[in-house]
Design a protein that fits this description.
It is a single chain. This protein has helices at residues 14-25, 32-41, 45-55, 62-74, 91-103, 118-132, 140-154, 156-162, 176-188; strands at residues 2-7, 28-31, 81-85, 110-115, 167-171. The protein has 191 residues and is an alpha/beta fold. The protein has one domain: Rossmann fold, CATH 3.40.50. It has a five-stranded parallel β-sheet with strand order 2-3-1-4-5, with helices on both faces. Helix 6 crosses helix 7. It is globular.
Length: 191
């Protein structure tokens, strides 16, 4: 079983690459962004709470995120593995994830981080905002806050898994296919 964390700041290409990797390696793609959009689109109690945080450019509290993630994992325990996109975002979430996986006799195989500069991230997100209709991708001040929150609260996740010798950085600049090739090389090194 391969269990990957695809890691990087907002706009680094995690969602695009996670879908391609899930298809190639037959993994279940778990995007917290998709989980949140589903919950918010259906105005569930968790979705309404998540909307408030995301609209302000802040992270959704761990209790909401962890609960949604565990429900999704439980539905696919017989799969070839998982690729997590947008989770974990805090050390507390890393610890919760490790516990969930340990309880299921599973573990994280690797964290792969996409490295992209801030100027490029802002450009990508504003471009995505034009086509996606996502309010959080259309306002540069919200984008800048999301990147700031990432650096302050999320980037330590890389070190958490690096201390377990599981983290690897990938250049996130280039064509989608070039970046995909780099990611596959990193994943193929697991076997």
């Amino acid at each position: 079983m391969i269990n990957l964390i695809l890691f990087g700041p907002p706009g680094s290409g995690k969602g695009t690459q996670a879908k391609k990797l899930a298809e190639k390696y037959k993994l279940i793609h778990i995007s917290t962004g998709d989980l949140f959009r589903y919950e918010m689109g259906n105005d569930t109690p968790l979705g309404l709470k998540a909307k408030e945080f995301i609209a302000a450019g802040n992270l959704v509290p761990d209790s909401i995120t962890v609960g949604m993630l565990e429900n999704k994992l439980n539905k696919h325990l017989d799969s070839a593995g998982f690729i997590l996109d947008g989770f974990p975002r805090t050390i507390a979430q890393c610890e919760a994830l490790d516990k969930i996986f340990a309880d299921k006799n599973m573990s994280i195989s690797k964290l792969v981080a996409l490295e992209v500069g801030e100027e490029e991230l802002i450009k990508r997100l504003l471009e995505r905002g034009k086509t996606s209709g996502r309010k959080d991708d259309s306002d540069e001040s919200i984008i800048e806050n999301r990147i700031k929150v990432y650096h302050e609260e999320t980037s330590p996740v890389f070190n958490y898994y690096d201390n377990q010798k599981l983290s690897h950085k990938i250049n996130g600049i280039g064509s989608i296919e070039d970046i995909f090739g780099r990611l596959c090389d990193s994943i193929d090194s697991l076997s």
